[in-house]
Amino acid sequence: MQFPHGGRPPRSVLTISFLGCGRAGRVLGHLWHRGGVFRIGQVLTRSPDSAADAVRSIGGGTALDSPAGLGPADVFLLATPDRHIADAAAFLSGSRAIAFHLGGALASALLRETGLEGPVASIHPLHSFGDFTQSVRNFDGTWCACEGDDAALEVLQPAFGAIGGRTFTIDADRKLAYHAAGVMVSNYLNALTAAGIDAYGLAGIDRGTASALIAPLLRNTVENIVDHGPGAALTGPIARGDWQLVEAELATLRDLDPALAEIYRVMGARTLELAGTRDDLDPDDRARLGAILGIGP
Ligand SMILES: NC(=O)c1ccc[n+]([C@@H]2O[C@H](COP(=O)([O-])OP(=O)(O)OC[C@H]3O[C@@H](n4cnc5c(N)ncnc54)[C@H](OP(=O)(O)O)[C@@H]3O)[C@@H](O)[C@H]2O)c1
Fold first, then answer.
1. Residue 147, φ and ψ in degrees, nearest 5
2. Which residue among 31, 111, 283, 287 has its CA within the 20 to 30 Å range from the CA of 132?
3. Same domain for 214 and 102?
4. Which residue from 58, 80, 147 has its CB within 8 A of the most atoms of ligand 1, so it is best to mutate?
5. Greater confidence, 186 or 159?
């Protein structure tokens, strides 16, 4: 037998279809299409317009306007919001194709419960798909938590690897704790930053100026945490044992904005625990700080 392209057999490329294709689905689809990892099949969302939009972002595939038009594929990605994955999977009931979802908190077994008969998996990229262009640029190096059937993972792990994903396996029974961890590290950083911007407002600094002021500080802090770990990278009044300053700041916030004061106190208590892992905090200062922040000795 003879093959074109240097005599090698053509690589068999599997077809992937999307049920739901928003922030995460479009980026993954684009990267797989661009890299020739999967052939893009059909794209079904809630509206024909958004399906057409998703196909444009991906650069390939066919937009569907109704589940009735769904045809066969080798792989189905259920990329709806978590609460709609089961509804969307019901359209595939009886399918023997590989099916997977991207939810970090839900087990892949959910897909089997909806009547799918093929291998199922879940692959959760630890990535914030907030901006299409930025995610396409930065996906390389993203860790992806996997669990599910071997027959699905044997196909999906290399497919994520081919676009720069770094796959690792997690225990399906502990996904809620796993996902809660990511919520704290990623989403709560947004909330804490927003609280900080509100606190700058109490000092008469407008939001635009505050956002500009904190940009280098945030980047520097994140880089130090990544390089040295949260305890070793910790600076500031709690790490220095400056309980007088912490007491005064808490009192000021309580006067001006009790809700912000509570965030300052709760996060301060956790920061004190972190500072306690180092040996440069004086025990008396530590005890004073504990009392101010409402935690025991
Ligand atoms: N966003 C992230 O940063 C991120 C990170 C890691 C994992 N994930 C996971 O990725 C999955 C998708 O999240 P996302 O942020 O990409 O969601 P999204 O941007 O809200 O997009 C959801 C997509 O699902 C479609 N959809 C909603 N309900 C549907 C239904 N019942 N049937 C068919 N399609 C439906 C939407 O249609 P329309 O376009 O018509 O609205 C949209 O295309 C979730 O499991 C999430 O946990 C997300």
1. -155, 155
2. 111
3. no
4. 80
5. 159
